[in-house]
Design a protein that fits this description.
- The chain is mainly alpha-helical.
- The protein has one domain (about 20-90).
- Helices cover about 40% and strands about 10% of the residues.
- The protein contains four helices and two strands; from the N terminus they run αββααα.
- A two-stranded antiparallel ribbon has the order 1-2.
Amino acid sequence: MTAKKPLRYRSIRYLAHVRGKPCVHCGQPGEPHHITFAQPKARGMKVGDQWVVPLCRDHHDQLHRGGFPERTFWALLGIDPMKWAFDSFQRWKKQNEEEFEDNG
């Protein structure tokens, strides 16, 4: 029996929904940031779009240029990005079920 691969949802509509939401740290308009540790690494693939949080341009740049691991960035801010991403995606998914229906 092989291990089930984690689902990596791709949804332009969900990313658009997150874009412009308040930055989870400062409240300024945010852009989607994929939480790099949310899923196991896969050759050349980002984590699924279900694992994004809104970060303003400044905090997004800080995270990528800070020189420390992403988990440390979130710990220093005292924010659980996984909880925000999970809760947000579940709410959105419930309101947009047609995007996830099996058409097969």
